[in-house]
Design a protein that fits this description.
CATH architecture: Sandwich
Structural class: mainly beta
Pfam family, one: Cupin_5
Shape: globular
Distance between the termini: 23 Å
CATH superfamily: Jelly Rolls
CATH class: Mainly Beta
Number of domains: 1
Radius of gyration: 17 Å
Order of helices and strands: HEEEEEEEEEEEEEHH
Protein name: DUF985 domain-containing protein
Strand order of the largest sheet: 1-2-5-12-7-10
Strand content: 35-45%
C-alpha cells in the first residue's frame, strides 16, 4: 500500500529530546548513535565467510568480494533522529523485522520505480511487520507517530531488527546524492524526497 511522503516535523515542533522510556530502551539495548541517523548495535556476525558479487554502481559491473555469511543489528529511530538517509547495499539482501513503533519506508528500485509503505502492527490496513530490500535498491525510512502522523511525540520510536545476507560491510554501502536522486525519480519527486538525503 503506497503512502504519502511527509517530512517528520519533530524539530519544527520543538520535539528533540526523547522521552525517558525511549532513552531507557536505547540504554538497555546498549545502542550507539549511527552515522546516518538513529541508533544501532550489531548483535551477531557469522564467522563463516562467503564470496559474493558486489555491484559497481558507476559501471554496472560486478566484482567478487568476501563477506561474513550474515550479520544482525538492532536499529532505532527516535524524535531526535527521525530519518534514516537514502543508501544502497550493493552486495547484500537486507531483511527487516519490526520490533516496536511505526514509520514509513521509501525504496527506489534500479528501474526508477518508487515504492513507499508504512511499517507498523496495523496489518489489517496494509502496514508491514517484515520487509526485504534486495541489493541495488536505495532505501530510506522515517519515523511517524503510530496513531496519527500529525501528532508526533517524544515517545515515538521505530525499533527494527535488520538481518543482512551476506553480512554488512561498510564498503557495500553507498549514499544517494541529489543529482542521482533527480536522475532516478525526476525533479518533482526528488523535491518531495530531498529530506531523506
Amino acid at each position: 500500500m503506497a503512502v504519502k511522503i511527509r517530512k517528520p516535523q519533530y524539530k519544527e515542533r520543538g520535539i528533540t529530546w526523547e522521552d525517558q522510556s525511549v532513552v531507557q530502551l536505547a540504554s538497555e539495548l546498549d545502542l550507539e548513535k549511527h552515522s546516518f541517523g538513529g541508533y544501532f548495535r550489531e548483535t551477531d556476525r557469522s564467522k563463516d565467510k562467503v564470496v559474493k558479487k558486489q555491484l559497481q554502481i558507476e559501471s554496472g559491473d560486478y566484482k567478487d568480494v568476501e563477506r561474513s555469511e550474515s550479520s544482525v543489528i538492532h536499529f532505532l529511530m527516535t524524535c531526535d533522529s527521525p530519518v534514516n538517509r537514502f543508501h544502497v547495499n550493493v552486495t547484500s539482501k537486507c531483511i527487516y523485522v519490526l520490533q516496536r513503533g511505526s514509520g514509513v519506508y521509501v525504496c527506489i528500485h534500479p528501474d526508477g520505480r518508487l515504492e513507499t509503505f508504512r511499517v507498523g502492527f496495523d496489518v489489517a490496513n496494509g502496514e508491514r511487520t517484515q520487509w526485504v530490500v534486495e541489493p541495488g535498491v536505495y532505501k530510506a525510512g522515517y519515523l511517524v507517530n503510530s496513531a496519527d502522523a500529525a501528532n508526533e511525540t517524544a515517545t515515538d520510536l521505530l525499533w527494527i531488527t535488520e538481518i543482512v545476507v551476506p553480512g554488512f560491510d561498510l564498503d557495500d554501502m553507498k549514499f544517494l546524492d541529489k543529482k542521482l536522486l533527480v536522475e532516478k525519480v525526476g525533479s518533482e519527486q526528488a523535491a518531495k524526497l530531498e529530506f531523506l538525503l
